[in-house]
Please model this.
Amino acid sequence: MKIIRVKNYEEASEKAYEVMKEFIKPGAVLGLATGSTPLGLYALMVKDHEENGTDYSQIRTFNLDEYVGLPLHHRESYYSFMHTNLFNKVGIPEENTHVPGGLGDLEANCKAYDEMLAKESVDIQLLGIGADGHIGFNEPGTPFNLGTHVTDLTEQTRKDNQRFFNDLGEETPTQAVTMGPATIMAAKNVLLIATGENKAEAIKGMIEGPVSEECQASLLQNHPSCTVIIDEGAGKLLENH
Ligand code: GLP
Model:
């Protein structure tokens, strides 16, 4: 793992953009993530597109995950999140973007997603990390050999994500469709960003703990090209890095 320490969220987003921009070229396949972590990076990608005209028309994207049961255009669906924060702002053709389907026949959706991904080579997979060490929505205990699958969200994850649903008077969904650990590991490069003290334990487990299904992100220790960007808060429990 290549570990880059930065001061705060803003610096983390800038560093992440520096890494990401090398991959933003025609023919690239980007693995994308949701959550508050990548928002700063996406804003910089949008700024670059607006100011420099960087072309996204021949870039394809595959997102990590989607909630089960939310209508596609629900404000908090990851489909909406990606369109609002990135896709609609950089002019990427709709058919080039892919988000796992959280409606209808979920098993069929997972199979179709894996079949598509089997034909692709994701150049760089962007990741955030959950407070329990999850990547995508792979919660503790997920077998490392799983591909795209349906998962139950832990109470911790639902609590962490409740802030997005509060003003709608809704509860965080209980399930999600997510790329599996094996799907994530197949990407040629991985870029994980973590900021804030609530990620410190997960980061400690990921970098200095044993590779264990209890901390899903620890599997990235085995990835041949993984860059991790962490700010002071997220890195505060590290002893040897
Ligand atoms: C969410 C997403 C993850 C994300 C993580 C952290 O539940 N499924 O992809 O990395 O939790 O979210 P945030 O960036 O908002 O802290």
